Amino acid sequence: MGRGSKDKRDIYYRQAKEEGYRARSAFKLLQLDEEFDIFRNVERVVDLCAAPGSWSQVLSQKLRPTENDRVKIVAVDLQAMAPLPGVIQMQGDITKEATAQEIVQHFDGGYADLVVSDGAPDVTGLHDIDEYVQSQLILAALNISTHVLKRGGTFIAKIFRGRDVQLLYAQLETFFDVVTCSKPRSSRNSSIEAFVVCVGYNPPEGYTPHMSNPLLDHDYDKYENALVGVNRAIVPFLACGDLNCFDSDKTYPLADGAVLKAPTQTPISPPYAKAVRLKKEAAVGLGNVHVERATDSATENQ
Ligand SMILES: C[S@@+](CC[C@H](N)C(=O)[O-])C[C@H]1O[C@@H](n2cnc3c(N)ncnc32)[C@H](O)[C@@H]1O
Q1: DSSP H or E run through 43
Q2: Among 15, 82, 118, 277, whose CB has the most other CB atoms within 10 angstroms?
Q3: Would residue 75 count as lying in a domain?
Q4: Is 28 noted as a catalytic residue in this protein?
Q5: What is its EC number (predicted)?
Q6: pLDDT at 284
Q7: Residue 153: CB within 6 Å of ligand 1?
Q8: Are 296 and 218 found together in one domain?
Q9: Could you tell me if the CB of 112 is within 6 A of ligand 1?
């Protein structure tokens, strides 16, 4: 299979298991770091939408190679997450004010050097809706950042490079000195996913963070998408990850003697669990129907 392969169990999936990461997403953060050196002088981090926790694993490995009390990593997700050393975990919805407040409290009035968000909604396949929900997650992440990020701090978030991405760039550029859109090699080409790397938190003069602050007006086409020329924010785009590293859209054979491993951390209560249960129950029900039909025809044949 070539670059167009739909094989989900790609090389990064396998490598994640080899290296003990809970998800292949770990390599996206590692490759963003290779390109942007995002962990330099970082001690306090918020990992938003963190489950199952591969980004938190990377953060923990990079920032506390030995136990370090100064390092604080706060991880949040809707889903429960198995514990990780040195990571404070919270279960909650980042678009809710109460969650944002709880995160802020963990910093005891202090500030974070870095906020990362790999949030993704359960994709419906309806692009407009998916993009809208994704933008809500980014805005929630940005809003939380305006409360906890120190001046000069870094914000990294997953985006979908869709129709309305210009508005997002413009919005981010009002809060950060430099905004770059980046696509790590481990992110599949077939996906519109990319990451904004926003360096140098520098909110507009007089900006007061509010928990319930609507950062965006959603009438995109009427306003921001109608902007032209210098009024339109065009941020640099950078593919990151060395050209020699694995291509996420290519399928690689297993290395000689390689042993297939189980996932490092199976999901605790995945959102698809109910669907799997219903499918199993339906299959059992269908099995009964087959048995009944078989019995009926056996009786007819007698
Ligand atoms: C791609 S996964 C994150 C993977 C994670 N970075 C890792 O490395 O393991 C996206 C996560 O976003 C979370 N999520 C989606 N909407 C959320 C919300 N409103 N609040 C908190 N988490 C959310 C999902 O529960 C899911 O675990």
Answers
A1: none
A2: 118
A3: yes
A4: no
A5: 2.1.1.205
A6: 76
A7: no
A8: no
A9: no
Instruction: Select which of 62, 158, 183, 279 is catalytic.
Output: 158
User: Which atom of ligand 1 is the closest one to the Cα of 47?
Assistant: 6
Stretch 29-43: mean pLDDT: 96
Cα distance between residue 57 and residue 29, in whole Å? 10
Which segments of the chain does DSSP mark as H helices, in order?
11-18, 26-36, 54-63, 97-106, 127-148, 165-173, 273-301
Give the ligand 1 atom nearest the CA of 158.
1
Number of domains in the chain: 2
Buried residues in 1-17 as b, exposed as e (16+ CB within 10 A): eeeeeeeeebbbbbbbb
Which is higher by pLDDT, 147 or 162?
A: 147
From CA 117, how far away is CA 228, in angstroms rounded? 30
Same domain membership, residue 38 and residue 103? yes
Residues 39 and 186 in one domain: yes
Residues 72 and 196 in one domain: yes
Q: Is residue 235 part of a domain?
A: yes
pLDDT at 185 over 50: yes
- Give the type of residue at 45: V
Please give the distance, rounded to the nearest whole angstrom, from the Cα atom of residue 134 to the centre of ligand 1: 11
| CB 59 within 8 Å of CB 86 | no
Q: Is the pLDDT reported for residue 286 higher than 90?
A: no
Any domain includes 109: yes
Q: Which residues pair with 87 in a beta bridge?
A: 73
Mean pLDDT of 13-17: 91
- What are the tokens at 197? 């790397």
Same domain, 223 and 122: yes
For residue 220, what pLDDT band results from cuts at 50, 70 and 90? low
Residues 175 and 83 in one domain: yes
Tell me the residue range of the domain where 300 lies. Answer: 272-302
Indicate which residue's Cα is closest to atom 13 of ligand 1. 49
Would 249 be classed as within a structural domain? Answer: no
Mean pLDDT value of segment 162-172: 81
| Better pLDDT: 170 or 177 | 177
